[in-house]
Write a structure and sequence with these properties.
Blueprint (H helix, E strand, L loop, with lengths): L12 H4 L19 H18 L7 H8 L3 H13 L3 E3 L5 E3 L2 H12 L5 H6 L4 H13 L5
Antiparallel strand pairs: 1-2
């Protein structure tokens, strides 16, 4: 299994903050009034994050629809909105992945929550690799704050 940079196959959902209940399968819970689209969108983001963690950064529309238990037309509509804001990326083969806008959001979250870079915490130094790993962890756990 190929690993995504900064996220190993040994990284747990707990470490990434994916087990908090914020990301749930879209069809598994009834959303409170007015939040169905948000719940479905978060389920799509969770599916993309979990796929990336397992070494498959891009998923097709059909695979996403099956994973979250929604119609392809619904998933496509939600992906279009996410893509318009950089929260989802597309490849040349129609696959979808977590978008680069999360990089900036992760950096902001680090500053807001005064999270020191991983290297600074562990060894009192800061390297480019530590910065990349910290960004990946922040992106994966953006919803826990």
């Amino acid at each position: 299994m190929a690993e995504s940079p900064g996220i190993s196959s040994h990284t747990s959902e707990l470490e990434l903050g994916l087990d908090t209940g914020l990301f749930t399968e879209a069809s598994s819970r009834r959303a409170p009034n007015g939040t169905q689209s948000l719940t479905r969108t978060l389920a799509i983001l969770r599916a993309l994050a979990e796929s990336a963690m397992s070494g498959r950064p891009y998923l097709t529309l059909g695979a996403l629809a099956r994973t979250v238990g929604l119609a392809k037309s619904t998933v496509h509509r939600l992906l279009a909105g996410l893509h318009a804001h950089g929260l989802v990326a597309r490849d040349d083969h129609g696959g979808y992945a977590i978008g680069s806008a999360f990089i900036g959001l992760g950096r902001i979250a680090e500053e807001v929550h005064a999270v020191p870079p991983a290297g600074a915490r562990a060894a009192g130094s800061h390297t480019e690799r530590d910065e990349y790993s910290t960004e990946r962890a922040a992106l994966a756990s953006w919803h826990t704050s």
